[in-house]
Amino acid sequence: MKHKLLTRHILWAGVIAASLTACKQKEAQEATAADYNGHGYDPAYADTTVSPCDDFYQYAIGNWMKNNPVPSTESRWGSFNILQEQNEDKLKGLLETLVADATLQKGDYKQQVADFYFSAMDTVGIEKRGVSDIQPELDMINAISNPEDLAKCVATLHTMNIGPMFIFYVAQDEKNSSRYITCMNEGGLNLPDRDYYTNDDDRSKELRDAYVKYITDMFKLLGDDDGAAAQKAATILKMETEMAAVSLTREEHRDVKAMYNLKTIAEINRMVPAFPWNTFLETAGVKGADEWVVDHPSFFETLNGMIKSHSMNDWKAYLNWHLINASARYLSKPFGDLAFGFYGTTMSGTKEQKIRWKRAVNSTSNTLGQPVGHVFVDKYFSQDSKKYVETMVENLRTAFRNRITNLEWMSDDTRQAALKKLDAFSYKIGYPNKWRDFSSLEIDRKSYARNVIRTNQFDFAYMVGKLGQPVDREDWLMSPQTVNAYYYPNLNEIVFPAGILQPPFYDPQADDAVNYGGIGAVIGHELTHGFDDQGSQYDGDGNMHDWWNPDDTTKFQARTEKVAKQFDGFKPFSDASINGHMTLGENIADLGGLVLAYNALEEYMKGKEAPADIAGFNYRQRFFLGWADVWKQTITEKELRRRLVTDVHAPGEYRVLGPLANLPQFKDAFGCSEGNAMVQPDSLKAAVW
């Protein structure tokens, strides 16, 4: 879930004047704003010079955008960032209290997060050590003389959460969700997407030039002279470009069936004979990797050729680059500044780094996710919030069941299979029922970088240790303090961490309509992911399995194609559009989530007295305003351009404009008319679930 630019782009040209109803709505809002109690959607966000039927995003949060430019330490600013910053403040207080507590016991999760945070704040020690904290790994790489050494170094870096050459992990088998299996994906790149290496537009060329300079400057910091550093940078760009040229696009990666290629270890050895896989597995501590799922076999055939065609010196430069680039923010200031200058400023338009304590809090939270989450929920998560959201999940499940039952385009066979999957959905809210045991993890106050390395190695060992073990259905893929949510197809579950169960997504003191338009639509979004273009290919047991009648598949694809074409038509820039197929799953989920949440709200309101208007808005209107509030955002041009290439989510502006224009409920709520920009013509209107 996530994303807005100050330049406005309307869905269709030829917008007509606002309807009389919309004009009266603006007058009512201005006349009664005093009854807003500080919870839920704030009417001060609205730009009342715009009709909600012409541009609902500008109408709902235009004034907020005007008053909230992107801060110098950010590349975008919106609801997610604001809530994240509030969580940072809370965590800072908790961590500083723990740092000062002399009674903490070694191996206790509180000791670990306290000492990690202390090491991240120890700028004197960090500056004194310079690059010495990763010197053992640099020496190991520089000693490579043959493919065996190469495999050992690649494996060691993978245990450190650094992914040269490819991505290696253990996960549930997509076609047999009752077991874990070894997985290997194409990878090995340090720019955010393969297109940055292959595109010929001016922006991509400028970024490649800046990338080469960044690599050169980093090697100069390591002690290379200008010529040697430039030579290594050129070699690294060449090698990564070779990998990028045979990598798939993000749209191609959405074909989950094509990404599943089952191989035995013998077949892996035949596919890439130049790489000593047994040495890699032994060094990485992986046992029982008899079968593998490979996403893109031809990539690995190219990698095999590269291992033979490039010298060991080339591979040394490549691996050193992966190591230093991944470690820069944990080392002394010159390394961190270089990394921020490229990834923060050049790539995303962020003007300055966050203050040290914020970086330290985020690093502690991201690296020690569950231990920090344990501290967070002990202090800040309410059981009442959990109960409210649990009730809302069941209300939305009921709404989804009613939708599926009454879909006219779906046959009974497919309908029954869909209902079976929906009934099998499980959910997790707030935090794990069972916390992971971190007691054997060594964390001290001596070295920030070594703490990061040891934690990453601990997590890697935990992951590969799952091979041959029963699937742990209590496992979480996000930490409790995370401001996000997810659907996981292999467990057929939706997960809502405590971090997102706060305003504006959920406010226990706000009206139900805004909460249904916020966290309710988010819940609906995640539920719908189980039935989007990818999720619909998994059954209720989490297995990739075709449960669709072929005629229904054709109808479903025709409906989703309408969604894709709508988003293809959005152009944030004259030379850059949204990729409607790359973002298709998220757009289906937004559209479905809104319908489910709205229907659940209406069902919830049955038999109740209609709530009083708030700031001149009735509860149906506040539902949609709650959705806009979630996606309010400003963003730098560089960051928006980057996300158009790399993000499977549409920018926040279009997550409001796109789905709402398809909904008759929105049209009725704001008195819009056919021909208004916020009303899709019937021939183009999209309705999937």
What this model shows, in words?
The chain has 689 residues and is α/β, with parallel strands linked by helices. It has a domain at 132-330: Orthogonal Bundle (Neutral endopeptidase, domain 2), CATH 1.10.1380.10. The protein contains 27 helices and nine strands. A four-stranded mixed beta sheet has the order 2-3-5-4. Strands 6-8-7 form a three-stranded mixed beta sheet, covered by helices on one side. A hairpin with a 4-residue loop joins strand 7 and strand 8. The longest helix is centred in the middle third of the chain and has 23 residues, at 383-405. It is globular, with a radius of gyration of 26 Å. The chain starts with 19 loop residues before the first helix and ends in a 20-residue tail after the last helix. The model is unreliable at 1-34 (pLDDT under 50).
Total helices: the number is: 27
Query: In CATH, what is the homologous superfamily of the domain at 132-330?
Result: Neutral endopeptidase , domain2
Molecular shape: globular
Q: Roughly what percent helix?
A: 40-55%
Q: Give Rg in angstroms.
A: 26 Å
Structural class: alpha/beta
The biggest beta sheet is recorded as: 4 strands, mixed
Summed up:
The chain is an alpha/beta fold. It has helices at residues 20-32, 56-67, 79-99, 109-121, 123-129, 135-142, 147-159, 195-198, 202-221, 226-245, 265-271, 277-284, 297-309, 312-327, 333-346, 356-367, 369-380, 383-405, 412-424, 448-464, 512-529, 550-568, 584-605, 619-630, 637-646, 652-660, 664-669, and strands at residues 76-78, 166-173, 176-186, 261-264, 291-294, 426-430, 486-488, 493-497, 633-635.
